[in-house]
Amino acid sequence: MSTLKKNQSSKSSNPKRVVLAYSGGLDTSIILKWLQDEYKCEVITFTADIGQGEEIEPARAKAIKMGIKPENIYIEDLREEFVRDFVFPMFRANALYEGEYLLGTSIARPLIAKRLIDIAKKTKADAISHGATGKGNDQVRFELGAYALMPDVQVIAPWREWDLLSREKLLAYADKHGIPVDFKKRKGAAPYSMDANLLHISYEGGILEDPNFAPEDSMWRLTRSPEKAPSKAQTIELTYVKGDVVAVDGVKMSPATVLTKLNDLGGLHGIGRLDKVENRYVGMKSRGCYETPGGTILLAGHRAIESITMDREVTALKDDLMPRYARMIYNGYWFSPERELLQGLIDASQATVNGIVSLKLYKGTIMCVGRHSDHNSLFDARISTFDDDQGAYNQADAAGFIKLNALRLRIAANLKHSKKAVSKSSETAPKSSASKKKAKSAKSSKSAKSAKTVNPNK
Fold this sequence. Notes:
By secondary structure, this protein is an alpha/beta fold. Helix content is 43%, strand content 17%.
């Protein structure tokens, strides 16, 4: 029996080769077999290591067991590329979606889409496939990225086609086709779903679908609870070059190593937990819990170094554009012309963002306790001092500055007061003879009318 939904046809398009984003887990293993059965195509698997913290090599053995040729199995370590070309550019913008979310899942999707297309071109495949559902954001992110890089690629999204929409049907399909099922998955439904990479871990679905349910502390994987974090604060130094961290505590590191180190430090001190109800691009609200310890430190440090090296109006412009930039990433428009244009502006603003920031980590909190830049600091103590500035700043100049900025306020206030004066004058002015005559006539008419309505029997 076909697992295609009604009104769907496996023969509507017959790709010869399909590149599948393959984790080796139950869902993508089922998708692999389903593609072979329904589309009668050659499947090429792509497994990416973006710091999810799990062994990815077992995916190779699973793919071979499913009949995939060794030359059609791609397993790649993308951690450095992920942080260097995606995470760091995003943090130059201080991007936050809806004021809180550090976009850990969102920023990983364009890299995966890019590599899917790279492999499709290399192997002359005409389609790609992914395991994102028809309710989420990831389907949009994968596919917008793919179409931007390969406009005519065919995208196969099984969750929008098949009828395996329950856990029971998935397990039955796995049993029928000899796909190994982890005991825990068979024993009971997972309490929630997880997605991990070097920037964060997300937790969604299951028991978390009740936005009023407080997750147990055992759920969190990267961070200690603030209550159990060390009782002694730790101060760290981040060295910035053009907006990117290049060293931690004076030790030079690669981008992925920087983020790994900051994840360890943030996790130790209970930093980076978030419980949020967000608005998905497809229209529904969704509750997610996130751990982003290293990213939370990166954001605090970056804002601190920008505070002394970036012009006021440039900072304001970046802050104005940031929510829009964050929405572009969240909604899947990383490869759009508008994001690339905005990235150019953001990157140009980072030319002077160089220096060292000191951050104190303590029980879930981050406090900046120092920042300096040898060549790019705009902080001039001679001018900003509260002591005698030796004439560096003429305080008398402030009077003219204030009056000029108050000019529009004074004009508006004068107009408001003049209107009130006119209104009050018209209320108290003596009435003209014509007005008096009219009022007298109206009074007489009213009296006559009252006389006509008198009860004759009274």
